[in-house]
Amino acid sequence: MPELPEVETIRRTLLGEKAGAPSIRGLTINGAIIFWERTLDIPSLEEFGLRIVGQQVKDIGRRGKYMLVRLTDDTLIIHLRMSGDLWVEGQDLSLGQHYRMVLNFDNGSRLVFNDARKFGRVWLVSDPEQVLGKLGPEPFDPALNEQNFYESLRSRRRQLKPLLMDQTFIAGVGNIYADEALYRARLHPLQLSSRVTQGDAARLLESIRAVLQEGIERHGASIDWIYRGGDFQNYFGVYRRTGEPCWNCGTPIARITVGQRGTHFCPTCQKGNDGTA
DNA sequence: ACGAGCGCCTGTCGGC
DNA sequence: TGCCGACAGGCGCTCG
Fold first, then answer.
1. Is the whole model's pTM more than 0.70, yes or no?
2. Angle at the Cα of A28 from the Cα atoms of A27 and A34, rounded to 5 degrees
3. Which residue among A65, A110, A161, A203 is the active-site one?
4. Within this chain, do residues A128 and A152 fall inside the same structural domain, yes or no?
5. Are both A77 and A155 inside the same structural domain?
6. Nearest nt (C1') to A156 (CA)?
7. What pLDDT, in 10s, does the model give residues A165-207?
8. How far apart are CA A43 and CA A77, in angstroms?
């Protein structure tokens, strides 16, 4: 899926912050269609339609990888998972093959939730905490600092890569940015969190923030057939660079599988202190 | 408290 | 050309 930078890019586009893109803020929903039933988590199909029609888009927020469309009475929460995308277009256009939800607005435009793999989910709730309650800290929250990040790492005994991708540990980091953050911090993906030093923790937090920030500035990464317009994929340090030379030392980038996910790292620059490298 | 495996889905790509 | 497995930006579940 899109990770935090891609979700943030889409959020800004839906608010009209990208040149030529119309904002949906202030528009009123006068029709809603779900094309794939499992896309809707809660409430029921019947209640969803009855409840959402007539509500106005007040603002769009984000929490981790979740898009939060704040309406008059409820919040429409959308998770894009692996292949989801959101955009605005005219109601006169024909429907695409992978449209899973469409919201029609009173000005003749519509919001499209497109999702080839059907993993995406939407929730319509009065209290967003019902869905977001278990999420860990937002990466850019100033309340997250070197000290409590260090303590949070030490309090668990997890491999760093799966831990970074655990949304209850920190929200918004996925497979690409976990690999990139560990590379930047010079930490091995299998190193145990219980054994990091204060310096390791400080570098890792700084690295997470730096790669997410760069991802946002480059409007996210666009890979495979899911094109979203960003160009961060041209600046990857390790992700999908298997066999290519490390920018720092020239060693071929290695690929291993961790938690069923492709994991890329430099065997020379990223040494673990737990015997894994 | 962990990690591993699997299910959910469709599409693309490389090898034969 | 066609088929077939590997792989893909995520996450919830079960099982040791």
1. yes
2. 110
3. A65
4. no
5. no
6. B1
7. 999 999 999 999 999 999 999 999 999 999 999 999 999 999 9
8. 12
